Structures are given as structure tokens and as C-alpha cells.
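Weekly modeling sync, notes
Attendees: S.R. (lead), two postdocs, one rotation student

Agenda item 3: backlog of single-chain predictions. S.R. asked that every request posted to the team notebook include the full sequence so nobody has to chase files. The rotation student volunteered to paste the first one in as an example of the format we agreed on. Action items at the bottom.

Example entry:
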Amino acid sequence: MRPKQKILEFIHQAYEEETGVRERSDAKKMDPEDRQAVRELFDGMSTGTARIIIEEEMDGQVAEDYNIAPLENKGRYYAARIVRPDGSAIRRLLVDKQTGDVQFAGR
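Predicted structure, as returned to the notebook:
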């Protein structure tokens, strides 16, 4: 799959449908795999990639002793919590979807 080409086709098709040049297409025409890839490209990053970035930023000992709670999509950022095994949070993080920068957001 060529992601850039798929995105351009998707945008072009949406524009034609909006302007009335083409009738609304059947949503089932786009392969679900392609649809997911386009969605992730528009988002800038998947939760899996954000998790990997966080794990790389964490100290080795911290990574062994603590877990990353499920990430929350906050628009341009993913919000993450570093938690103890009992589920209590020790640190909150923000991951910028476009740059991959990790910022500590407090507890």
C-alpha cells in the first residue's frame, strides 16, 4: 500500500462527493486495512507507537517496576499514566502525536 496516494485519493473522492461532481460512494469500497491506515496517518501516530516512545523514555528500572495504563486520545496528544501494579498513578505524561515529544504533566 502507498499511504500518500491513498490519502490523496480519499481526499479527492471526498471533495468530488461534497461538490456534487460524483455521487456518494459506497463506504465498503475502501478496504478496512486502508481505511485504518488513512485514519492513523491523519492522527499522526497510533497508540502503539506512542507506547513505544514512552517505554524508550522510561528508565530501565521504572519500566520493570511500573506499567503504562491505557492511553487516552486528547486530540493532538495522547495522555498516559505510569501506574504501580496496584493501579495507582505515579506520573502523567503527554505524547505529541506529530513530533513524538514526551512531556511530564504531573501526578
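Discussion: group reviewed the output briefly. Confidence is low (pLDDT under 50) at residues 24-28.
Action items: rotation student to repeat for the remaining queue; S.R. to check formatting next week.
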